[in-house]
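Minutes, project huddle
Topic: does the predicted pose make sense with adenosine-5'-triphosphate bound?
PN asked that the exact inputs be recorded in the minutes so nobody has to dig through chat later. Recorded below.
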Amino acid sequence: MKEDIILSVKHLVTSFDSEAGKIYAVDDVSFDVKKGKTLGIVGESGCGKSVTALSVMRLLPKPAGAIEKGRVLLDGLDLVQLKAEQLYHIRGSRISMIFQEPMTALNPVHKIGKQIGEVFRLHYSHMTRRMILDESIAFLRKVGIPDPEQRIREYPHQISGGMRQRVMIAMALAGKPDVLIADEPTTALDVTIQAQILDLIKSLQRETGMAVIFITHDLGVIAEVCDDVVVMYAGKVAEVAPVAELFYNPKHPYTRGLLSSIPRLEYPGKTKLNVITGMVPSLYEIPEGCRFQNRCPKAMAVCRTRPPGTTWVDKDHVVSCYLYQ
Ligand SMILES: Nc1ncnc2c1ncn2[C@@H]1O[C@H](COP(=O)(O)OP(=O)(O)OP(=O)(O)O)[C@@H](O)[C@H]1O
Ligand SMILES: [Mg+2]
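Predicted holo structure (tokens), as shared on screen:
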């Protein structure tokens, strides 16, 4: 593995079993996350962004969800092969996740102080109760929670959505992970708080050198915070490129469609990715060939035969499209 890569996802395939049949929500997805850098994952709703993140964390809903193939190498260690108890020590301390909906990560029946304290108890066995209390308060202050001495005595429902998001970020960071996965950490928040959370993640990243996987619908946010970008479409990777390359030299017709849906690049944060006509195909009715064919302005006969392979169009720039093969 290249030295500057902290996390490498290789040919990941994740399925869900249901009465209606088996679907492949993530189908042969590969990407690398560099140490200390931010990788964005972008794509419309249902493209498999969260399932990718949950697969990396080994937190897929059981028994329906399963990793069928592939590797998730964290500094060379394959998380796919680890047993539950081994994962318990890795999650939180080496890799953490901020969830799309904070209440999924917070326990409604425990006070905030107890929940953040739990992270320290789990990962730092030497810490005394006093140290844990002090550190919990310090972390809540660091993520911008006013009056943390009071907040630790409250329950999640007693604080606002923005504050819950901050508590979850504090918990995700308390174990000083090498990799933080942030799954749309700002979608539920108003614009001012969104900006604060983004700044917070960036400044904590500078301080600790952690890598971040940032999942979002919002290309404005991608432009602001990411170094590299993975564009996903219907469970597959359409394109991977450094952020400037993606914005100035997009190759995949899907990426181009997403970019043209941004009305003004100078005003990021207010864009919706819904102007490409048509819809992401249902995973129960995946077409033969390229999954984007029905919406693609450049579709050719070959696109309907079998899925395109990947092509390197430049160093670090990969595209999965017949136009480049
Ligand atoms: N528990 C589950 N059981 C069955 N199918 C699921 C489950 N979770 C996700 N899926 C399916 O997997 C696909 C990818 O979902 P995913 O949540 O990863 O999308 P996403 O890109 O994160 O979308 P969004 O932007 O809306 O968060 C979807 O078709 C979804 O219906
Ligand atoms: Mg999601």
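Observations noted during the meeting:
- The chain is about 30% helix and 25% strand.
- The chain has one domain: 5-94+177-324.
No decisions taken; revisit at the next huddle.
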